[in-house]
Amino acid sequence: MNVAPLQMILPAAAKAGAERPEADGVNSFGEVLGKALNNVNTAQLKANETTKQFLTGEIQDVHQVTIAAEQARIMMQLAVEVRNKVVEAYQEMSRMQV
User: Fold this and answer.
1) Which of 5, 25, 36, 37 gives the lowest tally of CB atoms within 10 Å of its CB?
2) pLDDT per position as a tens digit, 49-93
3) How far apart are CA 84 and CA 66, in angstroms?
4) How far apart are CA 9 and CA 24, in angstroms?
5) Angle made by CA atoms 70, 71, 76, in degrees to the nearest 5
6) DSSP-assigned states of every residue in 6-37
7) Does the reported pTM lie above 0.90?
């Protein structure tokens, strides 16, 4: 079995991010968090739109509505759990004695 080195598997975006200076890395967490929240919002809007289309008769398949609603619910649940972990980590750091 032939195993490729890790750097050959990484996408180009990940390689480019590794070469960025540390000063640019300050905003990277905020950017990632913002994109994730935008994705959650998009999923919520898609679920609402799909539900509206089902109620008006534009969509006949109830499975599409259920899948969109579940995707939105799971993404929201993940966002809440990430928020809880960030708050918990902040509280732990604030309790540290310097």
Assistant:
1) 5
2) 999 999 999 999 999 999 999 999 999 999 999 999 999 999 999
3) 27
4) 24
5) 95
6) HHHHS-HHHHHHHTS-TTGGGTHHHHHHHHHH
7) no
